[in-house]
């Protein structure tokens, strides 16, 4: 799954998955800075990976990959 959002400043990208970190340009957006750390933990627990790319004028893209198993025990 890929989601595109507004631009994240380059200095903030390396901290984006840390709890309570808010990008410098998020001053008018409500929140506590927990969302991306929760997403990262969830993806990690499922054995997946999350990548982030951000460029001025192009926005930010988060790509999440989660392994798929055909041996589901439901």
Structural description of this entry:
It is a single chain. This protein is α+β, with helices and mostly antiparallel strands and 74 residues long. The protein has two helices and three strands, in the order E-H-H-E-E. The chain has helices spanning 10-13, 35-45; strands at residues 2-5, 49-55, 59-65. It starts with a strand and ends in a 9-residue tail after the last strand. The mean pLDDT is 82.
Quick gist of this model?
The protein is an alpha+beta fold and 74 residues long.
Radius of gyration: 14 Å
- Could you give the distance between the termini? 24 Å
- The global form is elongated
The strand line-up of the biggest sheet is 1-3-2
Q: How is the biggest beta sheet arranged?
A: 3 strands, antiparallel
Helix and strand string, N-terminal first? EHHEE
Determine the oligomeric state from the structure: single chain
Give me the count of strands: 3
Mean pLDDT: 82
**Percent helix:** 10-25%
In terms of structural class, how would the helical and strand content be classed? Answer: alpha+beta
| Strand residue percentage | 15-25%
Q: Which parts are unreliable, with pLDDT below 50 for 5 consecutive residues or more?
A: none
Q: Given the structure, what is the number of helices? A: 2
Question: What structural keywords apply?
Answer:
74 residues, three-stranded antiparallel beta sheet, 2 helices, alpha+beta
